[in-house]
């Protein structure tokens, strides 16, 4: 069957006959090396992945913003300028990311009025006190409604800077420049912004959509391995909840992702953002389908809290939580043991933990019931009907949940 090049995964990587992939790759990817664009998919078949630069336009009613994914995004003055207002700019970053990437951003935007606010690094600084410092910087830099905040960093910087933009003068533009895989596939997209309160994470916040996201793949080069793997947990999540075909692609391309192959990363980030954007568009304020994004998170939050924040990275807890959700789904008769073995295998091959700490059944249930997803006293869980199809439900047999916890955390 002849396959036109235009069909070869403009938006998606597609499985095609190897011969057709080789022909197409030969024409479109001359000089890129076949092994870089083709990943094997069993005998005679391959995944074809598009070149590294990807663009996604998010539509939310009357608002619209682009997500640009690729190498060199922090060096692309025209693309950045196209998404910035004319007024003064404040870059918010932290003491780890700033020294690495502020110089190139500064050079790219040379000539613009650009102030800088460098925060200490760490989730423990995602607070109202730190936010107050950002407001001081905004006042000093005279950032008004015609100005913008640029958030350069991981999810902590993005959430805090986004919240500052939501509040300052009742809302100014915020451009996200995410530098962790987690921020590129999750926190920079969707418009949730927040800081922590002593009573819990992300309790003070607002919905405020970014005016653009520029995800520069070059920044991932300095990301610690453990942080990269934690980001992969959220990437796997998108496959599990929504896209069996993406899951197959991940299965075939996990090694390339772990090796930070830019084309594989660009595709995985693009697909993840597309799935997140689709669910957010359906449900901007999280009443229904958006809750699917919390696969593994109710179990995960219990693990994070019981282990003490900082012991387990969020993505690690989510990965293990996803395994527990799959095991519960099997007990409900929704997944087969083969499905669950595949979940465990993917998580393990991504270098992520598949077993929770033994925190005790009652403690786990107590922590899970503190989760925001509780409705009318019942813990609502995100469970899997099949690999690639999640549901959020309070309507499940308690014995299945209890049996999973007895087996895994008692
Ligand atoms: N808003 C949302 O929808 C949403 C979704 C998921 C998570 N979050 C939030 O995101 C936060 C976690 O984000 P995170 O995982 O990115 O953590 P993070 O921002 O703490 O970054 C992890 C570590 O990597 C460092 N780092 C960042 N970029 C780097 C780079 N390119 N090179 C080297 N080091 C780099 C950071 O300084 C930090 O030490 C949490 O606060 C969580 O609540 C928000
Ligand atoms: Zn998460």
Q: State Rg.
A: 21 Å
**Widest sheet: strand ordering:** 4-5-12-9-8-6-7
Q: Any low-confidence stretches, pLDDT <50, length ≥5? A: 1-12
What is the first-to-last residue Cα distance? 55 Å
Top-tier CATH class of the largest domain: Alpha Beta
> Strand pairing plus helix content: what structural class?
alpha/beta
Using the 3D structure, state the CATH architecture of the largest domain.
Answer: 3-Layer(aba) Sandwich
Q: Give the DSSP E fraction (strand runs of 2 or more residues).
A: 15-25%
| Total beta-strand segments | 14
Total domains, how many?
3
Number of helix segments? 15
Bound molecules: nicotinamide-adenine-dinucleotide, zinc ion
Give the overall silhouette.
Answer: globular
Primary descriptors:
410 residues; Dehydroquinate synthase-like, alpha domain; binds zinc ion; alpha/beta; disordered N terminus; binds nicotinamide-adenine-dinucleotide; Rossmann fold; 3 domains; 15 helices
Architecture overview:
With 410 residues, this protein is α/β, with parallel strands linked by helices. The chain has 3 domains: 1-51, no CATH class; 54-222, Rossmann fold (3-Layer(aba) Sandwich), CATH 3.40.50.1970; 275-408, Dehydroquinate synthase-like - alpha domain (Dehydroquinate synthase-like, alpha domain, Up-down Bundle). It is 44% helix and 20% strand. It contains 15 helices and 14 strands. The chain has helices spanning 18-28, 34-37, 77-81, 97-108, 128-140, 155-167, 181-187, 225-242, 244-258, 262-282, 297-307, 314-331, 337-349, 361-369, 398-408, and strands spanning 14-17, 38-40, 45-48, 54-60, 63-70, 89-94, 114-119, 148-153, 173-178, 192-197, 200-207, 212-216, 381-386, 389-393. The strands form 4 sheets. It has a 7-stranded mixed beta sheet. The longest helix is centred in the middle third of the chain and has 21 residues, at 262-282. The protein is globular, with a radius of gyration of 21 Å. The protein starts with 13 loop residues before the first strand and ends with a helix. The relative contact order is 0.10. The model is unreliable at 1-12 (pLDDT under 50). Residues 94, 96-97, 100, 121, 123, 126, 153-157, 159, 179-180, 182-183, 186-187, 190, 192, 201-202, 219, 222-223, 227, 314 line the site of nicotinamide-adenine-dinucleotide (NAD). Zinc ion binds at residues 186, 234, 297, 314, 318.
